[in-house]
Specification:
Blueprint: E1 11-14, E2 17-20, H1 43-50, H2 62-71, H3 85-108, E3 118-122, E4 126-129, E5 136-139, E6 148-151, E7 164-167, E8 170-173, E9 176-177, E10 179-180, E11 187-190, E12 193-196, E13 208-212, H4 215-221, E14 228-230, E15 243-246, E16 256-259, H5 263-268, E17 274-276, E18 279-281, E19 286-288, H6 293-303, H7 310-322, E20 333-340, E21 347-353
Parallel strand pairs: 4-9, 4-10
Antiparallel strand pairs: 1-2, 3-13, 5-6, 7-8, 11-12, 14-17, 15-16, 15-17, 18-19, 20-21
Length: about 350
């Protein structure tokens, strides 16, 4: 299901009743079949919850018994898997909650799930701007026919000529254009998604300008979710602003719905409602009020370091490329964490190798 928010708590609907989807053994949430754990302080407890029959001896361990005495019975009944299920599910969700948060953040940056918030146009003539007396032209007749680079002192730019810039004893292409290139201004295509270019000008790239839709156009379109934050009892009701409901189980574009409410309704359940926000990224002051491809691409670039160690990610990626151990990017990928790196922050995750076979 292409849902707005990712959750490890997967269920099906039986009418209006939510029925949890179980793992292959029937003892735990289905997420237990998707992740393997190593070096966990609750390894014995998780062993039992994952597979009570296979790991029955773990049930007698002091750690498991102490956990049960504090948190409730974990015993599994094949005839009635619902017995003690909530206790076993709690073990899984408590153990995975910080990893779930990181995975949910990655899911929230999936640009393929949402629409573009504007229109892209290829920019022609982009490059460095010509200045008189700065660049050089190659004259093949100079130096008695041996050719030489001569400084151009003409009064205007000629797009039919190849200009060069001097770098010590070398002359490099100046890549001149009629429109000056600036980082954080134009977009490039990365695997089908347009992302803001933060690098120096690359003559091999195709660059695009972006004309954003207005808020009114996106609201009228009906396929964009407003960026929102949850209200709390500390927020006073304001009749001049728009309130929304939020359902992360709905598909993107249909999760945030504007509602008309009274002050009495709001005061009774303030945390049931959401208000619109504006998110800003980058030195160029790019701002977003709707969940779009551009917002998600910017979110990934600007928030990645809040959840993963970028140096480790980069080194890990290069190693898997050099050794061609591509399994280590998928089913053999493992992540470890030692907790937040700053007070109040999220867990920071580091990729580690399960093995390095190819």
């Amino acid at each position: 299901m292409n849902r707005k928010d990712l959750s490890f708590n997967v269920y099906t609907l039986n009418g209006t009743e939510k029925v949890p989807v179980l793992n292959s053994v029937g003892s735990a949430p289905v997420i237990a079949d998707s992740f393997e754990y190593r070096y966990h302080t609750d390894a014995d407890i998780l062993d039992y919850v994952y597979n009570p029959d296979k790991e029955g001896d773990k049930y007698e361990s002091s750690d498991t018994i102490a956990y049960m005495q504090k948190n409730g019975d974990l015993a599994f009944n094949k005839e009635d898997p619902t017995e003690n299920y909530e206790n076993r599910a709690k073990v899984i969700f408590d153990s995975y909650k910080n990893w779930e948060k990181a995975v949910a953040w990655v899911w929230s940056t999936n640009a393929d799930s949402v629409k573009s918030g504007g229109r892209y146009t290829e920019v022609e003539g982009l490059g460095n701007l010509w200045q008189t007396g700065i660049y050089y032209l190659f004259d093949p007749e100079a130096n008695d026919g041996a050719g030489a680079f001569l400084r151009d002192d003409s009064d205007s730019y000629d797009p039919t000529k190849n200009y060069y810039v001097k770098d010590g004893d070398h002359y490099n292409s100046a890549y001149l254009g009629t429109i000056e290139y600036q980082p954080n201004t134009y977009y490039v295509d990365v695997n089908g998604t347009k992302v803001i270019s933060i690098d120096d000008f690359d003559p091999t790239q195709t660059y695009y300008s972006f004309a954003a839709l207005t808020d009114a156009e996106m609201a009228e379109d009906g396929e964009f979710d407003r960026l929102v934050r949850k209200c709390s009892s500390a927020d006073s009701f304001d009749n001049s602003i728009t309130y929304y409901t939020y359902d992360g189980e709905q598909s993107p574009g249909h999760a945030v719905v504007p509602v008309v409410i009274t002050e009495e309704q709001y005061n009774a359940e303030p945390d049931k409602y959401w208000v619109g926000i504006t998110v800003s990224y980058g030195n160029s002051g790019r701002t977003y009020t709707y969940d779009t491809k551009e917002y998600r691409a910017d979110k990934f670039i600007n928030e990645l370091a809040d959840h993963f160690d970028i140096e480790y990610l980069s080194t890990y990626f290069v190693m898997t490329e050099v050794f061609e151990c591509y399994d280590s990017r998928g089913k053999n990928a493992m992540f470890a964490s030692w907790g937040p790196q700053k007070q109040g922050g999220d867990y920071i995750w580091y990729p580690i190798f399960y093995d390095i076979d190819t």
